[in-house]
Amino acid sequence: MLELAAHILDIAENSIRAGAKLVEININENKMKDLLSIEIKDDGSGMTKEEIKKAGDPFYTTKTVRRVGLGIPLLTDAAQRANGKLKLKSAKGKGTNVTATFQLSHLDRQPIGNITTTLVALIAGNSHVDFIYKHRHNDRQFTLDTRQIRKEIDDLPINHPEILKYIRGVISQGLQEISTNA
Prior knowledge:
Strand order of the largest sheet: 3-4-2-1-5-6
Radius of gyration: 16 Å
Order of helices and strands: HEEHHEEHEEHH
Distance between the termini: 18 Å
Mean pLDDT: 91
Number of helices: 6
Low-confidence stretches: none
Strand content: 25-35%
């Protein structure tokens, strides 16, 4: 994975496979602290202590389609290469919280990538799941909450092409307003 958006997509998809109905994605870029943090929280089935230990092993996966689970190991590696780390907290029946930190200015930090496309893909492919996306850039913040959008669109499905076009525009404009590279 060459961009952090791909890692976010992978971890969020794991959340959805674990039965999450709400996935929260938080990105915090703090130039003063030279810190980038990415947090993905869900209300899915969670993991046991044993599963948490195994999650860092690329040869462990709960997927039945393939025999490797590279999401957590690859994100851990990306964080460590940029002077950061990964924390994984989970409890069976209570969901999971993945937090990766990076030195913002580090030469080896992967670019965030196209987060707009990542979020639209998650929403389009998982209309039964709600997403909260918060992106803080220094002292400015953008928030998107699909629960609020659902209240406004009445009977239209959230993955209707016109709604997705609207969501794409809202995210792009919001990220532009907080002056990130969207």
